[in-house]
């Protein structure tokens, strides 16, 4: 078994503090000097641990101000999690989201596997339509485990302030820090063709996304259908 290095142990302790709610979204962490003293490690060891947390999008550094717990906002959503633009567009625009349905259900085999729950466990199933320039370009089918979102309601979801991931973070302590996505070609079903203003069987892109939390725990399973007639999937992340 591989030994845990000092900086990895520091990273684990900071992560546990975030999960336990010691530090809240948007809140500054203690100074490097104070945190290193508290954890009884060198500044170098602490910085290496924080560097990894920054790289993973869990915390962010603000020049001259310190290190803060990453908070979901419009810019973070556009940069990390929304990847739809017009063909050859240079900039992303924030979509308008319309709730189509919000239902209580039992997890099917795929949902259970993705969300690490038992088949038949209670889940929420949500369908959204996303618009750019008043045109529906994307349909999202979202599944959430009720274990993480026991008191979620249709009204709370529809009337949220900010993005869906902001709601997860602010109201339920579920912070999405990364996603795992797979894309495949598909053909529009009758329902998707109606929503996306396409002919049945028209080409679409199917995006299958698992949203993961601070400890790599699954938070959300999402299947999106993208109309590629005038829009495309675009992702550009720096290292």
UniProtKB/TrEMBL annotation:
- One Pfam family from the UniProt entry? UTRA
Database matches in PROSITE patterns: HTH_GNTR
Offer one example of a GO biological process linked to this entry.
negative regulation of DNA-templated transcription
Q: Does the keyword 4Fe-4S apply?
A: no
Q: Which domain of life is it from?
A: Bacteria
Keyword Transcription regulation attributed: yes
Ranges for domain HTH gntR-type: 4-72
CDD domains referenced in this protein's UniProt entry, alphabetically:
WHTH_GntR
Record-level Gene Ontology MF annotations: DNA binding; DNA-binding transcription factor activity
Q: Which InterPro entries does this UniProt record tie to the protein?
A: Bact_HTH_transcr_reg (IPR050679), Chorismate_lyase_/UTRA_dom_sf (IPR028978), Tscrpt_reg_HTH_GntR (IPR000524), UTRA (IPR011663), WH-like_DNA-bd_sf (IPR036388), WH_DNA-bd_sf (IPR036390)
Q: Which UniProt keywords apply?
A: DNA-binding, Transcription, Transcription regulation
Protein name per the record: GntR family transcriptional regulator
Please tell me the species this chain comes from: Polynucleobacter sp. UK-FUSCHL-C3
């Amino acid at each position: 078994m591989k030994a845990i290095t000092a900086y990895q142990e520091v990273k684990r302790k900071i992560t546990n503090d975030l999960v336990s709610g010691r530090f809240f979204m948007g809140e500054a962490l203690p100074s490097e000097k104070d945190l290193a003293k508290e954890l009884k490690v060198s500044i170098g060891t602490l910085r290496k641990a924080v560097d990894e947390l920054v790289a993973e999008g869990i915390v962010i550094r603000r020049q001259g101000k310190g290190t803060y717990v990453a908070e979901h906002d419009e810019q973070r959503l556009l940069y990390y999690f929304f990847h739809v633009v017009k063909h050859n567009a240079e900039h992303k625009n924030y979509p308008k989201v319309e709730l189509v349905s919000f239902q209580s259900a039992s997890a099917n085999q795929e949902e259970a596997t993705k969300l690490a729950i038992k088949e038949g466990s209670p889940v929420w199933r949500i369908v959204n339509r996303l618009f750019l320039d008043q045109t529906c370009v994307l349909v999202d089918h979202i599944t959430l485990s009720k274990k993480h979102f026991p008191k979620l309601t249709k009204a709370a979801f529809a009337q949220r302030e900010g993005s869906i991931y902001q709601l997860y973070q602010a109201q339920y302590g579920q912070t999405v820090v990364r996603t795992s996505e797979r894309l495949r070609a598909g053909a529009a079903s009758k329902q998707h063709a109606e929503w996306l203003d396409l002919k049945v069987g028209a080409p679409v892109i199917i995006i299958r996304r698992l949203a993961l939390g601070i400890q790599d725990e699954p938070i959300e399973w999402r299947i999106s259908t993208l109309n590629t007639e005038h829009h495309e999937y675009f992702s550009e992340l720096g290292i």
